[in-house]
Structure to design on (174 residues):
């Protein structure tokens, strides 16, 4: 049995749903009162990827950052994949994704010097008051080197597992 250890970062502005995403993905729950902590939240999830492969995901969520800040390189060290998340009801959180991605590309790279696989997630698609249209997301995703983008709702558990599978697939195929 082959076991892959993958460090994956979850970045994006505060309040977009990063902690909820981590909690949902790892524990299968959506807890409205889940508290935002300061610093870094960390969780591990084991995936039985195939008959021959296990994947141990180390998920790092920068918690407590209201908006974009340049992150310490230590946080990025050894990361093999990344989730950049925004909230479809907040255009500010969408605009910040440019900064998050740029900071990531400046500080994290694969041993071969390429930028690490990164998926763009548009969260809270259950809410009617969305302000970021799909064609803007699509253009942004293509122009900024994301592997793809997906609409998700952590609240309704829509596309959470799918998004992570897509990212892991890309990491393992590098
Ligand atoms: P973080 O600061 O990025 O870690 O965001 P949180 O996980 O703390 O979530 C911020 C707020 O958004 C909380 O009140 C969550 O309950 C809420 N939230 C997270 N995901 C969703 C979602 O998919 N839909 C809706 N409607 N609310 C969500």
């Amino acid at each position: 049995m082959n076991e892959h250890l993958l460090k994956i970062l979850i970045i994006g502005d505060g309040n977009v749903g990063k902690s909820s995403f981590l909690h949902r993905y790892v524990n299968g729950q959506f807890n409205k009162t889940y508290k935002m902590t300061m610093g870094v939240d960390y969780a591990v999830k084991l995936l039985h990827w195939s008959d021959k492969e296990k994947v141990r995901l180390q998920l790092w969520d920068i918690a407590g950052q209201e908006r974009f800040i340049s992150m310490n390189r230590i946080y990025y060290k050894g990361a093999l994949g990344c989730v950049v998340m925004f909230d479809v009801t907040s255009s500010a959180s969408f605009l910040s994704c440019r900064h998050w991605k740029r900071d990531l590309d400046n500080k994290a790279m694969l041993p071969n010097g390429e930028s690490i696989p990164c998926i763009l997630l548009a969260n809270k698609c259950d809410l009617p008051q969305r302000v970021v249209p799909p064609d803007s997301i699509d253009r942004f995703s293509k122009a900024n080197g994301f592997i793809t983008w997906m609409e998700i709702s952590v609240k309704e558990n829509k596309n959470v597992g799918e998004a992570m599978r897509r990212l892991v697939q890309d990491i393992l195929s590098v």
